[in-house]
Amino acid sequence: MRVIAGTFRSRVLNEVESNNTRSTKDRVKEQIFNSVGPYFNGLNVLDLFSGSGSLGIEAISRGVDKCVFVDSDRLAIKVITDNILKLKIQDKSEIIQSLYIDYLSNTTEQFDLVFLDPPYSLEELDLVISIISKRKLLKKDGRIVCLYSKNCSIKEKNNDIIEYKQKISGITKISFMKWGV
Question: What is the value of pTM for the model shown?
């Protein structure tokens, strides 16, 4: 797994060696970043269910000011930390070991871009989007990118957050969401 573009282009990232974590393939990352924009100067990003941190690190490589990496798995937190130290991006990174529900319920931070890449077995993606909406954790012009099994579905409208685009890449469905009001 590598960084696709930006400052850290072609740098290899450590992966989480666990059955609990699924790596985001390079072609999926390319589709995501081609859809939401190639570069992100000044944005604040949340990488929820971070795994190795590859989505947040890709965003930092493309100009994001700050990324909050959240994962509950101790091994994933170690891999994220190692990747961030290897690239020397500690000043743009905040790593939090927490259950997603606890983090979303307690944070007051707002984000320009939210990555949701949970284990495919998690069936609560609609709940996650609902909490983000109700707690106004997404900025006015913000975007959410959800990755989940192509055999599953999520609501097209969820508490004023709507899906505006969808793509399928292999076994992965990618939903792009924003405020619909």
Answer: 0.93
